[in-house]
Amino acid sequence: xxxxxxxxxxxxxxxxxxxxxxxxxxxxxxxxxxxxxxxxxxxxxxxxxxxxxxxxxxxxxxxxxxxxxxxxxxxxxxxxxxxxxxxxxxxxxxxxxxxxxxxxxxxxxxxxxxxxxxxxxxxxxxxxxxxxxxxxxxxxxxxxxxxxxxxxxxxxxxxxxxxxxxxxxx
Length: 170
Known about the structure:
Layout: H1 2-41, H2 45-71, H3 85-117, H4 127-154, H5 157-169
Helix pairs in contact: 1-2, 1-4, 2-3, 2-5, 3-5, 4-5
C-alpha cells in the first residue's frame, strides 16, 4: 500500500512538472513567433537575436520534459537507486545553455558597438520592437514567478533552473 502511494505521488509530481514546463514552452513559442515578427517589422537586429534566444528557451523546455521523464523511471538493474540523477543532469544542461546564450548576447552587443566605432551605423528599431521587448519582459517575469513557485513546491531543481532561465530573459 505504501509503495502504491509513492508511485502515485511520483506520477503526480511528474505530471505537474510537465504541466509547468508545457505552459512555459507555449509562452516561449508564442514569444519566439512574436519577437521574430517584431524584429523583421521593426527592423531590429536585437529583437531578431532575442527571437533566437527564445528558440533556446523552447529547447530547454523540451530538455526538462525529456529528462524529467527519464528521472521518473523506477530503479532497475543498472540503476539501483532509480534514475533521479537525470533531473540533476537536466539542471546542468540548462545552466550551460544559460552561459552560452549569455555569451552570445554579449558577443552580439559587443560586435554592434565595435562596428559603430568603426564608422558603421546602428539602425533605429521601430516601435513594434519596443513593444515586443516590453511584452517579453512582462511575460517572462510572470513565467519566472509561476515556474519558481511550482519548482519549489515540487522540489524540482530542473524546474527551478528553468525558472531562473525565464528570469534571466526578463
